[in-house]
Design a protein that fits this description.
Elements (H helix, E strand, L loop, with lengths): L1 H21 L17 H41 L4 H15 L4 H26 L1
Length: 130
């Protein structure tokens, strides 16, 4: 869960950095009618605002998804008495569905599908390294 949170925080920070650099403030006319560049502090503030907007949002979302997945996976392991790929895939589907449960059926279907694919990919990756 912590690794997913930190990864999401880093990815979100890079996305925010990219957005901040793309949306730098344009210069404005001064009293003499010239276009001086925007002050450095304004540019820095724009970039930092975008980083701190995207980073925590994506990090928190990734952390919540990982926590839900792990809770459901551990519960299924205990209930079924074994740890297998089926538990992981079902856990992914349920975690995605719960995460987007307030977004309507379309959001639930997309999120559940993506988490199912991610869980299946993780199972395949684990099998390939063993």
């Amino acid at each position: 869960t912590g690794a997913c949170y930190m990864s999401g925080l880093a990815i979100g920070g890079f996305i925010g950095l990219n957005e901040g650099l793309k949306n730098l403030p344009a210069p404005s006319l001064d009293a003499k009618g010239k276009l001086p560049p925007a002050p450095f502090k304004l540019k820095l503030n724009t970039v930092l605002n975008n980083i701190t907007k995207r980073g925590p949002f994506i990090g928190n979302s990734a952390g919540v998804l990982a926590l839900l997945y792990n809770i459901i996976d551990s519960s299924l392991d205990a209930y079924r008495g074994r740890h297998d790929d089926l538990n992981s895939i079902v856990s992914g589907a349920l975690a995605g569905a719960i995460f987007k449960s307030t977004a309507g059926l379309k959001g639930v279907a997309y999120s559940s599908g993506l988490m199912t694919l991610a869980a299946a990919a993780w199972c395949g990756f684990k099998r390939s390294i063993n």
